[in-house]
Amino acid sequence: MLSTSLIALDSTILATAVPSIVADLGGLTQFPWLFSVYLLAQAVSVPVYAKLADTVGRKPVILVGIALFLVGSILCGFAWDMGSLIVMRALQGLGAGAVLPMTTTIAADIYTVAERAKTQGYIASVWAVSSVVGPTLGGVFSQFASWRWIFFVNIPFCLLAAGMIWRKYDESVERRRHRIDYAGAAVLTVALTLLILAVLEGGQAWAWTSWQSIGSFAVGAVLLVVFGLIERRAAEPILPLEVLTRRLIVATCLIGIGIGAVLVGLTSYVPTFLERSTGATPIVAGLAVAALTIGWPISASQSGRLYMRIGFRPTALIGLVVATLGALSLWITSSTPNVWATAGSCLIVGLGLGLVATPTLIAAQASVPWNERAVVTGTNMFMRSVGSAVGVAIFGAIANAVIATRGGDGSSEAVQAGSTAVFLAVLVSAAVSIAAGLLMPHTKAEDVAHGGPDDAATETSDETSDESSDETTDGIADDDRVPEPSTTTHTA
Length: 492
What we know:
By secondary structure, the chain is mainly α. The longest helix has 36 residues, at 370-405. The two termini are 25 Å apart. It is built from 17 helices and no strands. Helix content is 75%, strand content 0%.
């Protein structure tokens, strides 16, 4: 939770300080890159970190991630112009790319399937708290101190998180010689960089029909094909392609894309919608969006009881239907803007997503042995990033088109109409995700809920490895029997 708070707080604290940063450093036209380069570095590094975690263990990867985030935060605090700040934000993003998937993977390693929903709910609650604390701290530092403190504040948290993981989390990984897939890692990173960059900047920094946009998409697509050829021959591929052929993994990845799109649609457009249509203050508008991150951990923490009884697929489908109803409510009520109605709709969406994100991720993690779990987790989170990136591009194009035909962004009615159009697109994204949920195989949680923490459950590394590699007839790997969380041993 401490490690997650580093990323969650950083994701919410910066936006309120942008005016102060621009006033001090200049570079008004460059400031969107503060967000784009961070998201880009985070997204493209996740697959590499995930494979490393399945090779050398989770602990060294998350500690490296925290270290990169710490160094990046310190350098951001000392930035001398907008260009240097953008470069340091990329370093922060590389750290975040290791931290987020590792926290979720470690939770999957040390808790049983029945317990994971509650622990994922705890982790999700960090985002709920950060959605309120982050903007508040950003405003306080900008107004009463210096914007540089929004980065320096990370220092004690990084040291505390790293210290606790170093002392409290023990894992034993079988040391053997590995044939690292350098070529695959390099080609995948470049391909993802070009594709995500094209999506993030298309229609913003350059036109969709420009040579930059077409070239980025074309070269990125070609490199993905080359990557596939490399992985087919690699002894230890950075991203095993056969993992992506499994029905459960494909379905949960598609759901992850939908989750990312819904999230970015609401968090990006609800505040502006409320401020321009109702005259709400930024704080009030922010709290309306925070209702989403409040509902998420509440339902996520309770989802374990549901999927243990009825299975992963029905639980996810219930969550998708609830999220779709919340999106429908938001779209309908947007014609008569009201802060309470908007916040209530966001709360319903959050409650639904909590029943989707946690069970689908846990189902995917439980379907593979230990030495593939980080890759599956990283792939799921990467797909959420893809959904967010694609969502930003599509929703932005929709909003800009509607606003332009209604009188421009100087008109409150035009902004309201553009936001309503985006909410309709969010509704469509949620509804389409239901189809992805129907693709999930029928898997009962009891098939993977073997064993649990008990006094006699201190098993050897080899036994744990043997158990995690045995698959049931439903395609779900037996879950690791779990000793005390601080002394868990696993074998790669």
